[in-house]
Structure formats: structure tokens, C-alpha cells
Input
Amino acid sequence: MSDFDLDTFLSAPRVAGLALSPDGRRLVVGAAEPDRKRTRYVSALYEVPLHEEGRPRRLTRSEKGDAAPRFAPDGSLLFTSTRAIPDRDDGLDPAPWLWRLPVAGGEPEPVACPPGGVRGCAVAEDSGDLVIATGLHAGATGWSEDAETAKARKESETTALLLTDFPVRFWDRWLAPRTTHLFAAAAGADPDGEGWTDLEPGVSVALELASFAITPDGATVVASRRREEPDPAAARSDLVVYHREGDRVAMRALVATDDDHADPVMAPDGTRVVAQRNERSTPEGPGDRTLIVVDLATGEARDLLPAFDAFPAGAVWTRDGQHVLFTADHEGHRLPYAVTVADGTVTRLAAHGAYSDLQAAPDGTVYALHATMAHPPRVVALRAEVPDQEPQVLPTPGDDVVGPGRVERVTATAEDGAAIGSWLVRPPREASDADHGDPLAVFIHGGPVHSWNEWTWRWNPHVLAARGWAVLLPDPALSTGYGLEFVARGWGRWGAEPYTDLMAAVDAVEARDDIDASRTAALGGSFGGYMANWVAGHTDRFEAIVTHASLWDLEAFHGTTDLGVVWEREFGDPYEDPSRYRAWSPRNHVGNISTPMLVIHGTKDYRVPESEGLTLWTDLRRHEVPGAYLHFPDENHWILTPKHARIWYQTVIRFLDHHVLGATWQRPEHV
Output
């Protein structure tokens, strides 16, 4: 991929989701590309050759797209799609339903078509029984009643919502008028609801964020479930068991402690699950995270990683049940590991890049998606017990995409002596300013408990590098991959060590001869936007600042974000002591801001509501700070459509070109 212009970048396939057949002979991945009008991304499923020869074979086509592949025991492929069912007209719009592509191919057939759509699915490895998450209107006892309620709301043009629980919304959707239920059925059940059993009728919001697994025989489902408390801040996420006998369901607690639990994964023998346990954070410090193995009969839980100083995720059992595979951030990478269940021995399977979607084959092969700062995800193969190996790269849609920037790892020293790691993406040599050094853009990551460790479509440094910019991507305090203590350095002190670490990283890079310290900009989204705002109020060293989906007033943010009570674990109870919220709010320093700022926000962002962006913009204009406000009425915390991503990049680039490089301001088209 030699010509890395914006058109080529936005057209590149975006790979996500990997599924391996039970016999280990078929591997399927999803890839999204812009539709013909370039108004949205549409995903299709591809079969990947398990050897280096050949090209991926497209399996599905639909106008709405197909995603979330997984295999049934008979080798058929399950996936979700909003495609319409032929010859069906019940007055309701198609939802993301569950479909099946037969082993021999042909036309997909519907498997589960609840009116509220399928929000998640698990399949029993032996019986083929299914459990799905879907939404039901209040009072509906099944899919047909839910459809009647939905039809009545549509005909009456009712959009009002009545909510009595907390939370009321999540990321970009309201948790009403439907609430999440889990339904289970035997393979071959009626896709319109006959034979599907509601595992917990009458549940409110307890299963809204549920993750779940099913035993190989299909009789038992293990799920994460929010334990309801009068005070929402006291709620916990437990593991519960639903055991089915015919139409009857018995529910019991499996693990219920002061910690939160999520992502149960069933062992091959159906007697245990591995799950993530998150120690409850407090304003005094962040909680640790680990993996536990839980016996389904006794509820006995054992820590798999008692001495592992990183946050594990994405757990998968090997087919023999002897090991659990997982990933964890490590010094600017996200690496694959295998832990021996019997004795806790941990083996790091690779040393570079960012891995996800681990899939364990019967022969000991591990398939995964692998990305770096230089290229997007590709399908690779590893061996389950070989340490620090180089992955075998398999043919993948879009595997010719390579960023043109020159990527290197750099390190700075913080005020307290801590090592601050960063990625530096420099322009290709033909775009570099050899005489004066390259202008510098500093990308500040979100999270804040996060890390720059892989290719990103939303904040891609190569788009700027292709235009002659050097881009610094630092991991200051609160970043993952450097141990729990590194997270604790900035806990509840967002404007302290995270800020000084960031400035130390910038100082170190600006001291290089190939960087022009007189032409710099800072950019960030979410927590990165918070930090961009904090930077604006504490230094004028940057010529421009871009702040996207950013926090501005932490005390106001607590009451408007989707999960405000979560932030009490870091900043405390604002009703008793709001001092931390006030002390670390960038808004307090608006009078110090003189740097031109580009403020960006989406109306459907419920994690950082647009009230934060609007208040920031009002305050900036009131204090005569130059800049612009880029508003996306139909986008959320992320800019997801290709047409809007183009406008986002064009506006950011032109804002930087104008304020940093001295170019004449050019308003992007259509805004």
C-alpha cells in the first residue's frame, strides 16, 4: 500500500471477529468496508486459508452486513445480521438476528429472530443448544408479546421512555424501552420464539451488561449478573448459574463477593469456568484484576494468576482443558499468554504486537488477530506452549495495508524516576523535513486505564505521518502494561503524574534533532481529551490543541455520564466530599488558556455527554480563546461512519495545518 491518502485509508478493510470450527479445520473472520454510498461500513464474513497460500474466500453478502461469527457443533456457521427474512412482513423492522450458514454453503437461514435483536450468543459444544441475549419490553412474557408492544409503540409514534432503575443508558443507547433477558433453546428451535425459555422472567437491568457461557450439554448457563442494591454505587457483578430441566429453570449464585466478575468461559468438560475477577477500586487505589477458575458444583474459586502484575483479558481454554490462553498489555504491546491450570505456570507466547480473538485448535495451534503500530489486524497462527515465538501470518482481507510512517519505541524519565514508554511514528523519508525537523503531534490515549499498543482506525498516526508529521503516542501514569503501581501513580490525580509524565515524554522527543519543537500540537479523545484540556490550562507550549469527547467539569460529568457511580471508586462520593472532582477539573483553569482549540463531540455520546463539550465551548468563547466546534449529531463516543471519519480527519488536519504550519484555513466540504 504505497499511496496512503485519506481515501485509501478510509477504504481499507477493517478486520474484527475470529471463529474456529470445532474440528479446527475452518477459520472465519469478519471484515468491514464502506458501502457504495460510503455512508457506513458493512461487514462480511471470510474463510481464511489455514496455510500461507491462497486468499480469503467470501462467505456472506448482505446489504446490512454480517458479523460475530461462531461455529455450531455440526460445523455450520452462526452469525448476526440485520438482513430481512424473505416473504416476511410483520410490520416491524429487521433487527440483528441470529443466522446459520449450512456447512455446504448456500443461503443462510434464520435461527433466532427476537423483535429486540440478538445482543450476544453462546452455543453448547456438544448438543448445539443456544443461549442468546435479547431485549423485552416491560410486561412482555415472550417474543410475540414483545412484538405487539413494539408495533403499538411504532403505530402510536411513541418515543417516550419510563425508567425506574439505574443505570438508564450505556455508551450510545438507552436501557429502555427493552431490558436484556437471556433465552435458551435446543438446536433447531423455532426462530420466532417457540421453544425458547426465558432464564429469568421479570429481570430489570441486572443482565444489561451480562456475559455468559453454556455447558457442552446445554443444560447449564453461567452468566455475570449485576447484584441489585438500593445504592447503585454498592452494586456488584456476580456469577450466577441457570440450570434448565425442560421448561423449568433453577437459578443460584455461583460467586458473590465484594469483587466484580465478568466474561465466564466454559471448560471443555463443562465442570468449570474461567472468569475475570476485578477487585473493587477505591479512592485510595486501583483494584487488581485476575483470572479465576470456578468449580460449577461447589462454587470454589481459585486465582489462576496470583503473581501476574498485569490485567488479563480474552480468556480461552485449550481443547484439552489443561491451559487457559489470555492476553495482557505489556510495555506498549498486548501479548498472548498460556497459563497451566494445574500449577499456574505462565508462558508468554509472543513478545511483540497486539493480539486478540485467541482461538484454540485441537492440535495445539492458536489462531489470533495480530496488529502492530505499523499494520492493522491480520490472522496469525502460534503454538500453545512455545515461548516468545514469531507468528505465522495467514492471508487476511486487507493484509496489504501498511502505514507509511517509520515506527520506533522511545523512553523518557518522569520526575519521580519512572520510565515513560512511547511510540514515535515519523514521516516516511520522502515526507520528512530534513532541514528543520518534523512538526510534532502528540496523541494522548483515552481510558484512562489503557495503552497505545496497536493499530487504530480512529486515531491513526500514519494519516498525519504521510503528511510530514511526527506523531508521539505516550503511555503516562494510569497506562496499562507497566504494572499495577504504574496505574496507581496517577489514580485519582489525573492532572498530576499523568500530566507531568506526558510533558516528560514530549520534552525527550523535542530534544531530538529530527523534531521541530517550535511546531507542535496536542490531541486527545475521552480521557485523552480531558488531558488535552488540562494541558491547555497549564502550558502554552503547543500551537494547537484538539479535544474530542472530552471531560471538562468532573463534578457535572458525574451526574450526566452513563455510569457515574463507577467514578466514585476513584474520586469518592461527590455528595459527601466533591473536592477531588473540583480539584482535577480542567474547567478551573480556563482563564489560563490561550492556545487555539478544536472541540469535537457527538450528540449520542452517553459516556462523555455533549454537555461537557458544549460547556467547554461556551467557556472558551467567553474567554475569547480562538478555535472551532465540530458537532456530529448522529455519532457517539466514536466517529463510526466513513463519511464522518473523513470530515473528522479533514477538519483536524486543516486545523493543525493552519495553526501550527501557517497554512491558510480551508473549511472542509459539507460542514
In short: The radius of gyration is 25 Å.
